[in-house]
Amino acid sequence: MIYLEATANIGMEAVLKREAQALGMKNIRVQDGLVSMEGKTEDISRLNLHLRTAERVHWVLARFEARSFTELFDGVYDLPWPDIMPKTANFITEAKSRKSQLFSLSDIQRITEKAVVNKLQTRYKTEWFEKNGARYRIGVRIVDDLATIYLDTSGDGLHDRGYRKRSVKAPLTETLASGLVQLSFWNKNRMLVDPFCGSGTILIEAILLGRNIAPGLNRRFDFEYWNLEGANDKAVRKEAFEMIDYDSKLELYGFDVDPKALEAARINLDSLGFLDDVTLREKDIAQLDLAGDYGVIITNPPYGVRIEDKESVMALNRELGQLAKTLPTWSHYIITADEGFERGFGKKADRKRKLYNGKIKTDYYQYYGPRP
Ligand SMILES: C[S@@+](CC[C@H](N)C(=O)[O-])C[C@H]1O[C@@H](n2cnc3c(N)ncnc32)[C@H](O)[C@@H]1O
């Protein structure tokens, strides 16, 4: 058994916990932006490949009290670094500290690195490590004087799925977009519309979910370069490929007023072979007519902070509200940083959830339609 952690956007922890449960993790605990759990070495592969709302997966190596640099040094030195990393390891240390006696991040980093180097030197007789091999990001997080030492098994953040070939202004992070879809009542049997689709992030994340495609299948993770015994990464990848649902018929629509945004969406969808699942059309929200029952709208309209001015944002929200009135059986989910959203839309949300899009504080307005 090993200890693992997955980091998440603030507000997405409950979704991430559900994902970890579905992957069979044990003793799952939730803190702000962090879900910790117990699993097997193989789960490092499984979590990196399958988690949709996590930003990184940490393998926790130790937890101990560190009120002084001596305690920190000793705790780090005690770990079997020469068994964990080869002589060529390109190791980097990253420190965080909150409510603790040790608070200077550069000192925490320096002492940790010194302990790692001294321990490696007990086996590798060298003064100087060239660091020209695989990357190992060593994390030290000290909270309330309790140090957690971990390895970042993901490397590049998990939002980087490898499909964003072209972007637009203010795209949603992929992890957040997946969370939005998971927080909605959309499933692969329902129509999904994004009237402000931009580069297509929500649509793509919905297809990944609907077809049961592990979001990490198009990329690599740092741990895959570590010769990690028991990771079984090839078998876990194979298993993920076998789980894909190629047969379901999906019905998704993406609209945007900007042809460049649609081009970006087309390129991104095409890079995954998803073009057949989506109809993309250039359309101003004011001209948009939708038909059918029990459809779902999940969208991220422009919000004044970064793009449009407040007045035109209000007008767009009004259009979205008018559209909603013509679709009484539909459910509507809107993420925006515009605090006056409900006034423009013309209705109070059934539920409002605080979420972060990168550093921007947003709300997710949820309007539940009747169940099909
Ligand atoms: C915040 S971005 C959406 C980003 C998208 N979620 C993504 O991840 O790429 C808002 C989008 O709304 C589009 N837009 C602005 N005004 C519009 C209008 N009147 N009708 C339709 N789309 C509009 C913009 O072109 C932009 O692509």
Automatic annotation (TrEMBL):
GO molecular function: methyltransferase activity
Top-level taxonomy: Bacteria, Bacillati, Bacillota, Tissierellia, Tissierellales
UniProt keyword terms in alphabetical order: Methyltransferase, Transferase
InterPro entries registered for this protein in UniProt: DNA_methylase_N6_adenine_CS, RlmKL-like_Mtase, RlmKL-like_Mtase_CS, RlmL_1st, SAM-dependent_MTases_sf, THUMP_dom
Ranges of residues in domain THUMP: 56-153
PANTHER family: RIBOSOMAL RNA LARGE SUBUNIT METHYLTRANSFERASE K/L, RIBOSOMAL RNA LARGE SUBUNIT METHYLTRANSFERASE K_L
Pfam family, one: UPF0020
Domain of life: Bacteria
The protein's name in its UniProt record: Class I SAM-dependent RNA methyltransferase
GO BP, sorted A to Z: methylation
